[in-house]
Amino acid sequence: MKSKMILLMGGQGVGKGTHARRLIARDGYGYVETGAILRALPPESPVAQIMARGELVPDSDLFGVIADAIKNNPGDIILDGFPRTVGQAQWLVKNYADKFDIRVVYMNVPEDIMLARIEKRIREGGGRADDADAAIVRRRLDSFWRITMPAIEWLRTAQGIRFADVDVSAEDVDVNFTRISNALD
Ligand code: ADP
């Protein structure tokens, strides 16, 4: 049987990390958290400077890093924050659909709720530099709509994978988690 690969996709503040951790606690998936992997690179690296500006890291800088992370997590895995471009989505399906049962969960939330959740994350002291600056948050959201939404739309109809569009705009995290769990059944 193929291992499962769950792609958690959605804009900033939709709760990808929160729900990834819940799924992992329950089912024991390996976790590929793209933002955290990239944040672990030295601050003087070109990638760190791109991230500080709120821009997307070029696909060519990412494929090796993601391929290594997938290799280091045998068994069922969750990818959080990857893919984010049509190129990344196509690369993933091309190289991994034969080895994994790929399940996309598009965590669908209106933008005003994303913004409110990012503000809450700042208030509660998450302390991420790229969250604290409103202009950079705006740039990340713009790139979500402009660059990542087309990747989500491409995956919606891609062959050989399964796609779920899940409304996670409820106030109650448990309600959203149940919706995600049901979509993955
Ligand atoms: P957020 O989802 O709030 O933007 P992440 O921690 O997922 O936060 O990502 C932080 C930064 O890392 C992004 O702003 C971007 O610069 C970079 N990054 C993360 N994932 C990707 C990706 N798949 N492609 C390109 N850049 C990425």
How does this model look, in words?
By secondary structure, this protein is α/β, with parallel strands linked by helices. The chain has a single domain (about 5-185), classed as P-loop containing nucleotide triphosphate hydrolases (Rossmann fold, 3-Layer(aba) Sandwich). It has helices at about 15-25, 35-40, 45-50, 60-70, 85-95, 110-125, 130, 135-155, 175-185, and strands at about 5-10, 30-35, 75-80, 100-110, 160-165. It has a 5-stranded parallel sheet with strand order 2-3-1-4-5, with helices on both faces. Bound molecules: adenosine-5'-diphosphate (ADP). Adenosine-5'-diphosphate (ADP) binds near residues 12, 38, 55 and 56.
Task: Summarize the entry for a quick read.
The protein has helices at residues 16-27, 34-39, 46-52, 59-71, 86-96, 111-123, 129-132, 134-156, 173-184, and strands at residues 3-9, 30-33, 77-80, 100-108, 162-167.
CATH H level, superfamily name: P-loop containing nucleotide triphosphate hydrolases
- Unreliable stretches (pLDDT < 50, length at least 5) are none
Strand content: 15-25%
Q: Helicity level, as a percent range? A: 40-55%
Bound molecules: adenosine-5'-diphosphate
Biggest sheet: strands, sense, closure?
5 strands, parallel
Supply the CATH architecture.
Answer: 3-Layer(aba) Sandwich
Fold topology:
Layout: E1 3-9, H1 16-27, E2 30-33, H2 34-39, H3 46-52, H4 59-71, E3 77-80, H5 86-96, E4 100-108, H6 111-123, H7 129-132, H8 134-156, E5 162-167, H9 173-184
Parallel strand pairs: 1-3, 1-4, 2-3, 4-5
The protein binds adenosine-5'-diphosphate.
